[in-house]
C-alpha cells in the first residue's frame, strides 16, 4: 500500500515521504480500515516536527483521524464489522499505522460506526477535535444532560474544537456564546449554531459577553493566557474553564481570584484522558453524529502525494479542515 512515512522528526519537506509498504494485518482486538479520507490536526504536525516526543523507533505513518471502511478484523472482533463505514480517532497514538495511508490498523474501539447518510468529510473531521470538545464539555464527570439550559463560552468558535463544542453544546440544550477574530469566522460560528458571536478584536468584548450572560457554566478555552480576563469576568461558583491548548508562554494563574470565584481550571490532553471518560466523549460524539447534529468543517483536500503541502497548510493555520485523500 502507499503511505506517508517519517523515520525521524523535523520539517515536513525534510522528513515526510510517500512510499510503498506492506499492507498491515489486524491483530487480536484490531480492525483494518481502507482509508477514504485522512484528517490533519495540529497535533499531527507537532508530533512529526518533534515538538511532543522522540523520533519513531522504526517508522511512523502520521494522522490520528480518518474515515473509511473496515475491510478485515482480527481475532476476537465481531466479523460483522467488515464493510462498516467508520470514523477513526487516536489512530496513530502508540501505533505506527496512522491514517495517512491506503489502510490503517487500529484497536477496534478507535473505529466508530459512521451513519450511512453522513459524508466522508464529516467522518474525517471528527476524532481529535470533536472528542476533545465533548470531553471539555463533560470534564466534571456530569452527563451531557447536565448541560441543558446551561451557558457555555467557546473561545475560537471557528476552530475545529470550537466548531464541535458549539454543535455539541447546542445539541445538549445549552446556550452558547463564542468569540472569533473576523467576520468570515463569525459566519462559520453562526452556522454551527452559536447564539451570540463576538469579534474579540472589536471594543467592548467583555461587556458584550456579559450582556449575554453575567455568568457562564463552562468555558471551552483555546488560549488561557490571552483570554483569562474575559473568562474571569463571566466566571462564578461552579464555572469550569476547560483548557485544551497551550501557548508559547505559560500564563500566570490568579489563584486567589479563582478561589474567591469558586471557579476551577481543568486541563485537557486527549492522549491522557482516563479510558472511561474517553469512551463517554467518543460515545457522545458518535450519538451526535448519528442524530445529524454535527457538520463537517470547510474542507481543503490534498492527495497523498501532496502530504507535505497538507502539513504545511495546517502549520500555517488553515481555516477549516485539511483532508488527505489516499
From TrEMBL:
It comes from Actinomycetospora aeridis. Residues 12-324 form the Enoyl reductase (ER) domain. Gene3D superfamilies: Medium-chain alcohol dehydrogenases, catalytic domain, NAD(P)-binding Rossmann-like Domain. CDD domains: zeta_crystallin (cd08253). Keywords: NADP. Pfam families: ADH_N, ADH_zinc_N. This is NADPH:quinone reductase. The lineage of its organism: Bacteria, Bacillati, Actinomycetota, Actinomycetes, Pseudonocardiales. It comes from the Bacteria.
